[in-house]
Amino acid sequence: MSRVLFASAVAFSLLMLLVLVIRIFTQGIGWLEWDLFTSFASRNPEDAGIKAAFIGTIWMMGLTAPISFVLGVGTAIYLEQYAKPNRFTALIQTNISNLAGVPSVVFGLLGLTIFVREMAMGRSLLAGALTMSLLILPIIVVSSQEAIRAVPADMKQASYAMGATTWQTIYRVVLPASIPGILTGNILALSRAIGETAPLIMIGALTYIAFLPESIMSQFTVMPIQIFNWTNRPQEEFHMVAAAGIVVLLFMLLLMNSIAVFIRNKFQRRF
């Protein structure tokens, strides 16, 4: 009985997802023109575009990905290979696991307090990227730890037996063997980050700008915020433009995931 209920719930969820995707495509496909990518936001839906939001999203992901990868994987390596098991490391591990379930708006408040105000970064791309990195770090750390733990102990012991140091073993044995799992965790984390709105709104990301970012300290907007702004407009045409923006965002997500999966599979075949 439970299996039947589970299968019915899964089928219903897939059906609702299919209906939602079809509705978005039918509403937005007519607005997917080149002008959508070359125009800034406007009060007139016929002239509205996603140029600033599209470029801002690319900037945001380009900054968030390396920051979160280095910090997340570095933390996982330290906890798994260097840190001794004690109460302190157990406390850190528990907090990291709990942070994965914290609402994203809390990370927005944290970013507003630390990066925007205390560190005087203002409403900049760098402040947004650091805030988004805080949001996805727990996911990256936990998934990277699981990938590192999955490396057979015999491989590590063989490296140590050959006279390798701890870092040499990590660099030459552990990371190559665990990189597919690590990249999978990063894919999931960045997939969450690219669609987040609340943290960026909390730090003061703009809903309307008519310029492109010139540096990491520039003000910005991103696709989710622009889409959120359009869906709140009373004109039905803005809802159509928002649907077109959602289609573009989905394609960006699929492209990003495809590239990451390709890299992961390449490493998996190699090692």
Automatic annotation (TrEMBL):
It comes from the Bacteria. It comes from Salibacterium lacus. The gene is pstA. InterPro entries: MetI-like (IPR000515), MetI-like_sf (IPR035906), Phosphate_PstA (IPR005672). Residues 54-259 form the ABC transmembrane type-1 domain. Belongs to the binding-protein-dependent transport system permease family. CysTW subfamily. Its main location: membrane. This is Phosphate transport system permease protein PstA. The keyword Transport applies. The chain crosses the membrane at residues 50-79, 122-142, 200-220, 240-263. It is a multi-pass membrane protein. The keyword Transmembrane applies. It is found in: Cell membrane. Keywords: Cell membrane, Membrane, Transmembrane, Transmembrane helix, Transport.
